[in-house]
Amino acid sequence: MSIGKALRLRRLTARGRAVIVALDHGNAGGMVPGLENPVDVVKMCANEGADAVLVTPGVLEQAVDEIGDLAVLLRLDGGATTIGPAAPMRVFCSMEDALAMGADAVVLNATIGAIHEGFELEKVGRIASEGRRWGLPVVAEILSQRMLGNHMDFTGEGKEMLPSDIAQDVSMACRLGVELGADAIKTRYCGDIDAFRRIASCTTRPILVAGGPKRSSSLESTLRLVEEVLEAGAAGVIFGRNIWQQPDPAGALRAVSALVHDDATVEEALEMSR
Fold it and tell me: Which of 55, 131, 138, 175 holds its CA 20 to 30 A away from the CA of 93?
């Protein structure tokens, strides 16, 4: 690993495991409930125990004065919305621009099983190659087509639940990310601790678990998810709606951080959220 990558990843994982708050949902979903003012959410993240935020270039420009000590993951791709026809996410921000904006890592998507998977997987490999040259870590967000309907439900209700047999999808997503040269993989939890532990042990790169729509309206449900993925070997979480669509986003973030960084129990974390 290059010096640049090592230094930037060190900032992201300064406390070991990472709590990252995703605020890039407007890139596909527009005015998503809970994220009407992303600058305020960035400020909350800086004050309540997050390690990093995942943002788009436009939001980073607006929120730069509120970043504080947060590491920055910059979204590089987009160009597809939740109301448009199925389409690949295309790179709209260069690695040079990401470096100029002070990003600690970049994030881009690929959907396996989609008609455009070849385009998006090539994109991940190409950007990973550029990451080696520039010393900039690449996080590959890889989901399967079967996960996508649930993941792109931006209502906060989680109306379409994940399939119960997605362990093979998650395993393939992680392996493809590694093969294409990503430095970390963002994907969903398969729902089975033993299966995810096997996947994590074979991946050889950190796995950051995405939250997606809440499994229920309760914070406890989110915290049980965090507890499971940490036990199964995740390197951290990248949560968006599971944080800022909670009735008390700051309390939710404190609680998740307590689990990830302080080895708190779910019950202790719930107390800290109040």
Answer: 175
Contact status, residue 206 vs residue 187, Cβ threshold 8 Å? no
Q: Provide the number of structural domains found in the chain.
A: 1
Mean pLDDT, range 175-200, rounded to an integer: 96
CA distance 166 to 179: 20
Residues facing residue 90 across a β-bridge: 78
* Mean pLDDT of the residues in the chain: 92
Domain of residue 214, CATH code: 3.20.20.70
Identity of the amino acid at 3? I
Report the SS3 class of residue 244: helix
Indicate the range of 127-136, 195-204, 207-216, 249-258 predicted with least confidence. 207-216
Q: How far is CA 168 from CA 147, 178, 208, 209, 224, in A?
A: 12, 15, 17, 16, 22
**Helices first, then strands: H and E counts in the chain:** 13, 10
Distance CA 271, CA 261 (A): 16
CA 16, 63, 252, 183 dihedral sign is negative
Distance CA 103, CA 106 (A): 7
Cβ–Cβ < 8 Å for 217, 246: no
CA distances, 178 to each of 136, 149, 173, 175, 229 (Å): 16, 24, 9, 5, 19
**pLDDT confidence tier of residue 163, bands split at 50, 70 and 90:** confident
Identify the domain containing residue 191 by its residue range.
3-272
Phi, psi of 153 (to 5 degrees): -80, 100
